Amino acid sequence: MNRTTASFKRIKGSKGTRYMFYCDLSGVLVCTTREIQSVFDDKELMTVWKAEGEQHFNKCHKCGRWVIDAMYNAEVLECVSCAPYELEKDFHMPSGDKLIELESFGFGPNAMKKHKVCSGCGHMILTEEQECPLCGNKLTDQTLYDLYKKMHDYCPDCDTVLPDGTLVCPHCGCNLKENVYELHAGSG
Questions:
Q1: Rounded (10°) CA dihedral 91, 92, 94, 95
Q2: Using CA atoms, how far apart are residues 169 and 158, in angstroms rounded to an integer?
Q3: What pLDDT is stored for residue 183 in this prediction?
Q4: How far is CA 180 from CA 81, 95, 162, 166, in A?
Q5: Digit-coded pLDDT (tens) for 48-68
Q6: Could you tell me if 30 and 21 are in contact, meaning their C-beta atoms sit under 8 angstroms apart?
Q7: d(CA 139, CA 152)
Q8: Is the distance from CB of 26 to CB of 68 less than 8 angstroms?
């Protein structure tokens, strides 16, 4: 897979073309170039890559993927797919602390389980309520968390709702790539 640029899309605009470069491992959009007069050839691609794209990436010395810093193990100059980070044996992921901190601001799975959303007016209500105080709509037992689980991925270990495509849970450290068959998307 030894490539000369990261994954990209060409977007035709009114004054020319923009290139959008993506991390080859996470798929995240990393940069969008300015509009340039376009001829759609390899020389143009390499010019815009060298001028505006390459500086935002690291190239894996093993597989050739172009990846962002978070997907790059700089100790061995390889992407985290080729050389995953190894945790020191005494390392402890403070997942409980992170979740408690999230909940203190009204976020996280436990906070989401304490609220419902009225299907009539969209008002957020505590789960104990059976009727919306604003519009009088009868409420189901579906929580805000249940609603999000139907639309997004969530961690099989700690139940935290995650952006689609997340590879590692930011709260408990679960490697979602290894748990791909356990990852729940829209099955809530």
A1: 110
A2: 9
A3: 41
A4: 14, 20, 14, 11
A5: 999 999 999 999 999 999 998
A6: yes
A7: 22
A8: yes
